[in-house]
Design goal:
mainly alpha, Hypothetical protein af1432
């Protein structure tokens, strides 16, 4: 599945602007990491773009992402994408372990991208000037973006094999490259 087809599928299933932006943010982080590791940028990007496309219709485990996987398989989507999407849900990790770079990266970027977006939305300069130390300070505030799993963010450090500050910085850089599409440009409302 190419990016245009993935976007069309996403738009067919997702009406929420914030959910669409979340998937665009994860796509940006996945493409960024694919370039850094000389992986298939299109495959990684499509994986990030589609990882939550079924969430609006089937938000509860284990339906999400299992229902989405059925749809993707019926449409002939590469099993590497499907299995990575299944692996980003902790309840699927026995069958789809985080044993491959694509799977580890998706898991490590998902919650962090959501948290970075929340951080940017409360900053007057949005993503501009955002630092890992500022993000870590917000991570310690339990009531800020309370539905974001800190455990998953901290596990990302282990999965990526880099210090958390480096992973945060890489994801900030990725999101800055697509800030306009995410509605996170300086001065954006």
């Amino acid at each position: 599945m190419n990016r245009a087809d993935a976007w069309n599928l996403l738009c067919e299933y997702v009406q929420s602007d914030s959910l669409r932006k979340h998937m665009l943010a994860v796509e940006a982080a996945m493409r960024h990491y694919a370039r850094k590791s000389a992986a298939d940028e299109e495959l990684w990007g499509v994986t990030g773009l589609l990882h939550d496309f079924d969430y609006e219709r089937w938000p509860d485990p284990p339906a999400h992402p299992a229902e989405g996987a059925k749809i993707l398989r019926a449409r002939g989507v590469d099993e590497e994408i499907v299995s990575a999407i299944l692996s980003h849900a902790p309840w699927n990790q026995e069958e789809y372990p985080l044993d491959r770079p694509l799977r580890r990266t998706l898991f490590a970027c998902d919650e962090l991208c959501g948290f970075l977006t929340a951080c940017a939305l409360v900053r007057p300069t949005r993503l501009d000037g955002m630092t890992a130390s500022g993000v870590r300070k917000k991570l310690r505030t339990a009531i800020f973006a309370a539905n974001v799993s800190r455990e998953h963010i901290y596990r990302g450090e282990e999965l990526m094999g880099v210090p958390l500050d480096a992973h945060i910085t890489e994801c900030i850089t990725a999101l800055q490259g697509t800030a306009a599409e995410l509605g996170l440009l300086l001065g954006a409302q």
